[in-house]
């Protein structure tokens, strides 16, 4: 985990500061997501986790700082430009295309890779099978049970074949069994697809077994970057979680 | 693997099932009306089929993009006037529009070809206005398109030398039979279906559902909306040409507020997010409108005699639209396809 980051191959946020009308959401935060690693991003509510993902994916322009994607400065580019350069994300609350079918949701993502219509369908079907959704391809996405919606959200993000995948609370609202399955799926995604994954989650049962490194934010600042075992006993992390009266670090 | 083979193998067959069923359904109704309705209904049938072309064209943009355009009848106007300028006999044009440039005056094009060219002119006009407008937010784009309609209306009423203003351009040859209209309705349905299932159409429907999430899979939206606008302007432009060939006259009022209201009502009643909805809504609203129009001049209810109720048809369409909006906001089809 202590390998020196090869900036030219990584997704890098440098000195990211985001100011919303006097409120400072992020202060001078650095983040490095190395190729093929799984990095956890934790912190109490309002720590700035989602804002950081929004900056990295192009949905929020940082007040200061830059975003480098494999060495190229992409700070001013749109989300769709970054998708074409290998960066994808999922959303809190999934934001599925609810009236479209499960298959269409993923197919539309595969089309971003530039393949033709029939090839896109084939790839979408095999990706859905990978997520155990092959029996639901013709259903409307909005009518799926919560667990399937989460998995479809991840499958859709993966459909664009990213080298860097940002997952914003993929396990929110899932029960213990479902979130355990999701952890397994995310790990195999990395192994099979060879992409780097950034995971935001509150639930330490998701983050701890999944991530190789964890970065902790509090009040818009990085308070720790370490391996899971070290994060668990980090005084600043414990204080941040206890201070916010969130669930403790287990 | 078995499930994939099923989904992949049947895809080609199923892909054609919906447009085929809609076209056959429309053709069956048209044949039945011709066979049993007598010659009196022939003009109504043709009018209904021309409306179908226009509403399917409107659906191609509104249904796939989610932008409820109040300005698309501008493309009908452009198509209608283009058609008239190409088909009114040159000697008549010389009398009606003495200021017309010689090149336009001498122009004489076969109606079938002229209808296609009228669609292309409408699409070209859409390309000019659409490029800046498709960058706007959906609501702003809807209002801006309405502004475009008003500009086209004002030009049509004031550019007397080309349009004859409020008097309208007469002398358009009667060129829209029920079979011409039926043929174009079939083309419109097939084109709308091909577009909505195409790469661009699918990605546009994603953006309709959730624009932010669409950006996250590389959909920039502007280009997709622009393509939809061109396709729908072409279909509506052809519709305008067919309308001109049916009424044998083009005037500014024909493509303005009433037309905008009626076509949007047809889309709303059927369900604006499915092609089946566009087809069913046109049929339903047109039928209600015709029944009410026949009652407009007075009717008897037992001993009571109602003398005259002008505007009854528009009232009825408005009431039907309101009823659907309140009871079933996504239309009688619920925004789903029948197949």
Average pLDDT figure of chain B:
92
Give the quaternary arrangement of the chains: heterodimer
Strand coverage percent of chain A: 15-25%
Pairing-aware structural class of the strands and helices of chain A?
alpha/beta
Strand content of chain B: under 5%
Helix fraction of chain A?
25-40%
Silhouette of chain B: globular
Q: Please count the beta strands of chain B (DSSP E, at least 2 residues each).
A: 4
The CATH homologous superfamily name of chain A equals P-loop containing nucleotide triphosphate hydrolases
CATH class of chain A: Alpha Beta
Looking across the biggest beta sheet of chain B, what order are the strands in? 1-2
Encode the helix/strand succession of chain A as letters.
EEEHEEHEHHHEHEHEEHH
CATH architecture descriptor text of chain A? 3-Layer(aba) Sandwich
Give the low-confidence spans of chain A: 245-250
Q: List how many beta strands of chain A DSSP finds.
A: 10
The total number of structural domains of chain A is: 1
Concise account of the structure shown:
The complex is a heterodimer of chains A (250) and B (339). Chain A is an alpha/beta fold and 250 residues long.
Structure explained in plain terms:
The complex is a heterodimer of chains A (250) and B (339). Chain A is an alpha/beta fold. In chain A, 37% of the residues lie in helices and 24% in strands. Chain A is built from nine helices and ten strands. Chain A has a six-stranded mixed beta sheet with strand order 6-7-8-3-9-10, sandwiched between helices. Chain A has a four-stranded antiparallel beta sheet with strand order 2-1-4-5, covered by helices on one side. In chain A, helix 6 (176-193) links the parallel strand 7 and strand 8. The two termini of chain A are 22 Å apart. Residues 245-250 of chain A have low confidence and may be disordered. Chain B has one domain (18-255). In chain B, the strands form two sheets. Chain B has a two-stranded antiparallel sheet with strand order 1-2. Chain B has a two-stranded antiparallel ribbon with strand order 3-4. Chain B starts with a helix and ends in a 12-residue tail after the last helix.
């Amino acid at each position: 985990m202590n390998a020196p980051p090869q900036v030219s191959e990584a997704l890098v946020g440098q000195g990211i500061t985001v100011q919303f009308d006097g409120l400072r959401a992020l202060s001078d935060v650095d983040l490095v997501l190395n190729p093929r690693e799984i990095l956890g991003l934790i912190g109490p509510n309002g720590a700035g986790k989602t804002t950081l993902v929004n900056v990295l994916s192009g949905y929020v322009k940082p007040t200061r700082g830059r975003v480098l994607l494999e060495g190229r400065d992409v700070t001013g580019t749109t989300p769709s430009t970054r998708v074409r350069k290998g960066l994808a994300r999922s959303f809190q609350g999934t934001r599925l295309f609810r009236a479209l079918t499960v298959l269409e949701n993923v197919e539309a993502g595969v089309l971003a890779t530039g393949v033709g219509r029939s090839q896109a369908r084939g790839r979408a079907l095999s990706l859905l099978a990978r997520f155990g959704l092959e029996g639901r391809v013709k259903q409307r996405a909005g009518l799926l049970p919560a667990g399937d919606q989460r998995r479809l959200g991840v499958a859709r993000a993966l459909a664009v074949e990213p080298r860097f995948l940002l997952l914003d609370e993929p396990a929110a609202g899932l029960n213990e069994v479902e979130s355990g399955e999701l952890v397994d799926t995310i790990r195999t995604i990395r192994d099979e697809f060879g992409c780097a994954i950034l995971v935001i989650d509150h639930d330490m049962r998701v983050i701890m077994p999944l991530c190789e490194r964890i970065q902790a934010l509090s009040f818009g600042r990085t308070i720790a970057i370490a391996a899971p075992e070290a994060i668990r006993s980090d005084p600043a992390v414990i204080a941040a979680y206890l201070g916010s009266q969130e669930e403790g670090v287990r | 693997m078995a499930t994939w083979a099923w989904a992949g193998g049947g895809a080609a067959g199923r892909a054609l099932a919906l447009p085929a069923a809609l076209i056959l359904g429309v053709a069956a109704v048209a044949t039945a009306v011709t066979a049993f309705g007598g010659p009196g209904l022939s003009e109504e049938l043709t009018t209904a089929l021309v409306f179908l072309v226009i509403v399917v064209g409107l659906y191609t943009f509104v249904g796939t993009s989610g932008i409820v355009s109040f300005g698309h009848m501008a493309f009908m106007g452009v198509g209608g006037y283009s058609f008239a300028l190409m088909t009114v006999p040159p000697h008549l044009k010389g009398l009606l529009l003495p200021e017309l440039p010689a090149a336009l005056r001498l122009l004489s094009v076969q109606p079938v070809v002229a209808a296609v060219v009228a669609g292309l002119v409408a699409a070209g006009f859409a390309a000019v206005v659409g490029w800046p407008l498709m960058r706007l937010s959906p609501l702003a784009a809807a209002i801006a398109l309405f502004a475009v309609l008003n500009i086209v209306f004002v030009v049509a009423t004031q550019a007397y030398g080309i349009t004859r203003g409020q008097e309208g351009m007469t002398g358009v040859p009667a060129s829209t039979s029920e079979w011409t209209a039926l043929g174009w309705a079939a083309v419109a349905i097939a084109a709308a279906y091909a577009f909505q299932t195409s790469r661009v159409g699918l990605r546009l429907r994603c953006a309709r559902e959730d624009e932010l999430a669409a950006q996250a899979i590389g959909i920039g939206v502007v280009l997709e909306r622009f393509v939809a606008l061109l396709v729908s302007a072409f279909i509506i432009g052809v519709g305008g040409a067919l309308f001109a060939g049916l009424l044998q006259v083009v005037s500014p009022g024909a493509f303005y507020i009433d037309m905008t209201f009626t076509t949007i009502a047809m889309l709303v009643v059927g369900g604006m997010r499915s092609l089946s909805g566009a087809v069913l809504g046109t049929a339903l609203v047109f039928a209600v409108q015709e029944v009410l129009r026949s009652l407009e001049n007075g009717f008897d209810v037992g001993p009571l005699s109602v003398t005259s109720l002008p505007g009854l048809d528009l009232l009825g369409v408005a009431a039907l639209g309101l009823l659907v909006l309140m009871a079933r906001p996504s239309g009688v089809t619920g925004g789903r396809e029948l197949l």
